[in-house]
Amino acid sequence: MIQRAYLDNNATTPTDPRVVDEMLPYFSEQFGNASSRNHAYGWEAKEAVDHAREQVADLIGANPNEIVFTSGATESNNLALKGLLNEGNHFITCATEHKAILDPAESLAAKGIDVEILPVQSDGLLEINELQKKISDHTRLVSIMMANNETGCTQPIKELSTFTHSNQGLFHTDATQAVGKIPVEVSDLGIDLMSFSSHKMYGPKGIGALYIRKGTKVGSLIEGGGHERGIRSGTLNVPAIVGFGKACELCKQEMREEGSRIKSLRDKLEQSLLSIEGTQLNGGKENRLPNVTNIAFSGVDSERLLLSLNGLAVSQGSACTSAVVEPSHVLKAMGIPDQLANSSLRFSLGRFTTDEEVDFAIQKVTEAVSKLRA
Question: pTM above the 0.90 mark?
Fold first, then answer.
């Protein structure tokens, strides 16, 4: 019997060994600065970055010159919002967004941006009617997360972007949890800007991207050198960019088969845990990622449950808010009572999850819930 299992892949994924192999030469052999244009070391680094940019763009159906490398999705979200919105602009987002959208929105509101936060239904989905009620000719930007990090709920992005464009607004999506797990084609979905990150798709941490549709003007947050077409200055992290590119290439090749296998494991885990008395699924069974389930264990405090799961890595919600002792804002926005929200755990499977790990998780959770209730 295995001794531990990692089912917290929405927090971060292990870097695929094939990605690590691709990165290694760029630490000490081909270590040049991609902005050094006077010698072969710099040329090699720039060539590697250009190739990675093509790999990243290919995964989402974009043009390479529409990809701006950042330190991750949080920076990409901040760049999209703060690089577009000015005092007097109207901005619309959603109550179940990641804090990397909600916190910048709060600071923008303090600077004179008119911020509107839309409610969601009990399954986590945003109704187009809610957007129709609030959007106006003054709406500069709408930002709706493609797939929720806590429940896996996937929003009707194409419908939302189409309506946004019909009102002359721009559409941004935080697709951090979606890219690499489900097919994402930016042109087909009508996306103007999209944030995503390497470490959610078996690439290294500290590197991400903002897709900016050609012709969309975004101001810079970081200045000093004019890197990334002047949108995001700073020496490029060549090893991480190379790893990001390779991770995207692997996702493009393996996503469909991988998603089917992971979904089968997720369903097995979910069915077993929901057979425990006093449990419920948070969110709908449809319109969600194949790797996530969020389950409430009535009458059991999730913190105590987590402490009882020796060797099993799961979470109460977003890793970015795990230090905050309060009910998940996502579950609360879906109308789930505080008591149940505080009894909920997120299980997120990944590329390297095995059947044995799922069996281990089922056994651990079942035993711990029984013991705590007793």
Answer: yes
